């Protein structure tokens, strides 16, 4: 019987702390920490405005070799590894698929995706395609994909090969259990060990941004307001007091 | 005078029988029948939610050679083959253009597309671009394209070369008169000779899907409900009776 | 101190005269004038329905060389050339960025774009990406891009190199001060010296188009109505009189 | 029984007159005549130093559709169109194959190529691959290819579809019977109707080139010697007389 | 301490039996057996005329993540996995590297390759680059590569990640211990379990090929000699007797 | 009259000191110094075994715009900027051309290249093509190119735009006067300011390499000999003494 490993999930409060940070801040902070690129390039949001954070379950597709995978094998659903990755799904999990950028294979269709949603999965990232879009869209699942195809997952050149192993997706290495942050900018990989530092740094420099944004929108000089120049700090502090007063 | 051949159209009831099947089911069924790939890769839906079925009229664009096609020739509209393919359009027809993946030529613009719509054309598939999007969108024509360009059809590297000949579009061979099924998953080519078998197979396995989908959405085990396990059949049969009773 | 040149802007009435012409007509007219391709290929509209005309400020990104640009240099914002191009923005200006088709660098983020909008900038064209989409979309700025990334502008392989120099963007040479016309078809470059001829030609052949469009939509013959055949001119003239009468 | 059309061959003396001109001169001359690009891009010489001129027989490969071409069909060699194009080969003919840039199909192998050579074929151009290189190289056939593969011609995604029809090869339209000029610069298509003009123009400007080349090699100024400046004509004329005298 | 698994090598006589078969015959035979594509696409011979057969040791490169691999780690050579794959090399082994098609990383240089040769390695296949070509060429090692670069293996975007795990190389899945057959046509993967059938089939149809090749080279009809027609069998049999007599 | 700037050349002894270092050592040393990538990717050696070092003259090609460059302009050779870059050539100079990866334009032909050689030019790097290969090869000029074409430099999509300005070539920024080191590994850019450090570092670790290479070739352990282990140093020192003695 096929058995595949589960992942170690990061603590719930770590996930919670990352909820409002956004992919751009995470990627940028990691960049300044020396991790140059964590952006899964290629898959783009399929339903704008979604924002998810969660641990990665991984599925590795490989080039099909008919001696390793054939239609006969397909007959026994329990051998199909693209099903097994879904068996591991817990509330809030994100499935990340290395589909090798292939535009001719639809990794999951309507029923698999319904099951994923029923299990409480947070979203799916594929450097390739899903199929069955007319039905699948009704689920309103957060999806980052390269596209859609009517073909099923092993119809042309791919076969499912492994579950919860390290994969390369969109030119980023993803280790099972890594944290995925995905929004309209795309999907970013955050190693759990670096999450505390990212959370700390991301919360640092926010205080004057709202004021600066307001001034910039009025056409005020970038040099003075972004980053906030020392000369402008008094006026910002004054504004902050006003705001506080107004709220009382 | 330029003369181009017409196509043989499949029977109306064949088209009708295919209306509710969807590109994914057609492509998947053909895949299991040994026709590996019939998905026209590259052109994607430009106005989500459209679904069309109809016979293919074809237009072949070729690399421009100024000794075969020049601006002077352009002066006589009746020599322009991209017009001729439209002359053949009957209610429900689909124009499929081999534009060689070119992103710099807009095969049809606003007026050609208006004429196409006036003739009752069902939709257009181009492995390339149309132009005049601001106007053309008002027509709400079902379109599967690689993109849009402001350039006209022979402005850069292409020339129209033949009408209703076999073409390659999106890496699929399309024979004039082949049936096109296109929806949000993309466009698929169905040879009319295989349509009866596809129609028969596509209608087979639908009976328990609604029940399974409902269960999966509730988080029930994939192993039990997709495909429906023998153990679960009695509960499904019971549900079916209930449903029937409820409807009475 | 870093100093960058400003551009010469075309007269306001030239810009105004181009407002209703559209990218397709400009590109097509230039094509017939012997300027084969002025379409900036790659960047596509990010918020459909926008239409802008204005002079180009240019920003040139180049492959990063750490001896020429490093994180330390980043410390002094006033050395950052992507800021300098924004300092030049006047009401109606368009920033065009040669980002080398790079999908891993987000040239501007939320704050830069807010400043751009505050200055009255008309829109941004990048053969690459912006970042910070969740925030940036609230600005509703007209944007033509290849995509989005969470990475900041120098996080991976690019560095800002020059402002208001000739650039190549989407395989078109753009000279600072060239006029950009951008709509849902894409962005087109119009050399100011050719603008008068384009404006003149673009206004020529419009008179019977509305009538022809109406007829074509009714399924009338393309041969008779597009271009309008001499045989059909009397009926068109009659219709025009009717229209005029109706308006009185 | 399968029957395919033959081509009309240009007169032998036209071919002979083109022998010493070279692909660069033909392409450049056509360029100045308004035929911008006749270079078959992609296929490169496989055995340096070869130079051939001859009429094109064409073979069109298309994306495989198993309903149109299957292994069973393969059983009857006389149906295989890649054989039929070879049946037409006469002394000096060149086979040009539209293999769609495919790197996974070897259009001809050792035995087909041996037969081609036995028939007196001048060379083969493929925007794709041949197979069986270890054996095929012994034939020393002039070949312009994208590469080599061990796969046979229909092993993956292509099927032979038509013989002696117009094809696109390396982004150039080739009409059966067009003249091919191929050397280390690549392969160029010359329409027979334009050959007389090309031959006339190509023979024009050669007289001072030998002298100029000699001077340039000595480090003399380009401005004076290429093209030959009027100031330098007397010294060239003098040299020419010397040369003539020396030969006597 | 880093430890990596060894592979199971196929019997020596299996390797020996494959020596004279050639990549084209192996790939073609596997194709007819239903294994469509076993050609490692991309890497091409770097020193023509080499032909090797042997078991695959595999090295997997992955997109660099600085939290998983940094310059510091580089300080301890014994942690470097590209060294470890070489520690496993036995006489006749072939190292196959999944370098992700990367053209900016040179997986091995001069010293590593010297060690590989010293251990008796048969050849190296990389869907990427080696470095140090001026020195490395002196070794005359059989190499199939995409190219060369002066950069070292982790200088840009890759890191060595695993040894003797299944990899994808040139769009073919390679299992450690699979047999590689490589010659001027490229490199092919042969699963050891299928080797006996391939060896049997490959030796079948060779008997009349020499005669047919001779006849084809003389311009004799393809229809009669390839495959050998029944009508021609008597003359072939006669020739075979002659040959035998001549040898005596 | 067209005037273009000259470059500042590095001292002759700096060039001399770099002669024996090789592109791999320079690129690797720069990599360890934090300059990640200086390899001009794309252009490859056209005549194996060449090794050159010299300062870069640069030529920038840009996408053709017929309003900026037309056939008429071509009539005055002295306006053609691809000639002007050659006017600057001094003994040992290297011309580097940003040809935008274009495969359809031959930047220089036979006569230009002859002049370049006559001036003592060391070699040419183009991320694109030259033309006239049959003649040009006789010059035996060191060349790193993407390929060859019969088309001339402005026949299709490019125009020469600037001389001795910063360019991007093969995804590396090249400043006029930068040092180019090119050999069979490819071409590398070395900023003159970093040359002394590179020269110093490159000469450091060479002393035991010859001994290690010899041992590795005999199959000795990599762990012991590369890098040379302290345990092996005595035997190396002994060998060094022997060698010295043998030479006396």
Account of the 3D structure:
Six copies of one chain form a homohexamer. With about 250 residues, the first copy, chain A, is of the alpha/beta class. In chain A, about 30% of the residues lie in helices and about 20% in strands. Chain A is built from ten helices and 13 strands. The first copy, chain A, has helices spanning about 10-20, 25-30, 70-75, 80-85, 110-120, 135, 195-205, 210-215, 220-225, 235-245; strands at about 40, 45, 50-65, 95-100, 125, 130, 145, 145-150, 160-165, 165-170, 170-175, 180-185, 185-190. In chain A, strands 1, 2, 3, 4, 5, 7, 9, 12 and 13 form a nine-stranded mixed beta sheet that branches. A two-stranded parallel sheet of chain A has the order 6-8. In chain A, β4, α5 and β5 (about 125) form a beta-alpha-beta unit. In chain A, α2 (about 25-30) packs across α7 (about 195-205). The longest helix of chain A has 15 residues, at about 235-245. The radius of gyration of chain A is 22 Å and the shape is elongated. In chain A, about 55% of the residues are buried.
């Amino acid at each position: 019987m096929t058995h595949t490993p589960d992942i170690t999930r990061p603590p719930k409060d770590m996930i919670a702390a990352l909820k409002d940070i956004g992919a751009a801040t995470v990627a940028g902070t990691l960049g300044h920490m020396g991790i140059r690129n964590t952006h899964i390039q290629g898959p783009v949001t399929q339903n704008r405005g979604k924002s998810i954070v969660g641990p990665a379950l991984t599925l590795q597709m490989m080039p099909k070799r008919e001696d390793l995978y054939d239609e006969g094998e397909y007959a026994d659903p329990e051998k199909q590894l693209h099903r097994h990755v879904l068996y591991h799904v817990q509330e809030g999990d994100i499935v990340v698929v290395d589909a090798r950028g292939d535009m001719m294979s639809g990794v999951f269709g309507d029923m698999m995706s319904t099951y994923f949603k029923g299990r409480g999965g947070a979203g799916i990232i594929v450097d390739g395609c899903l199929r069955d879009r007319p039905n699948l869209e009704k689920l309103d699942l957060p999806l980052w994909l390269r596209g859609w195809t009517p073909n099923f997952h092993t119809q042309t050149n791919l076969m499912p090969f492994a579950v919860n192993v390290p994969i390369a997706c969109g030119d980023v290495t993803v280790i099972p259990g890594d944290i995925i942050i995905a929004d309209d900018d795309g999907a970013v990989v955050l190693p759990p060990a670096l999450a505390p530092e990212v959370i700390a740094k991301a919360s640092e420099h926010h205080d004057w941004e709202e004021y600066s944004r307001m001034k910039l929108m009025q056409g005020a000089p970038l040099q003075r307001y972004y980053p906030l120049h020392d000369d402008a700090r008094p006026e910002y502090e004054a504004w902050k007091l006003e705001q506080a007063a107004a709220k009382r």
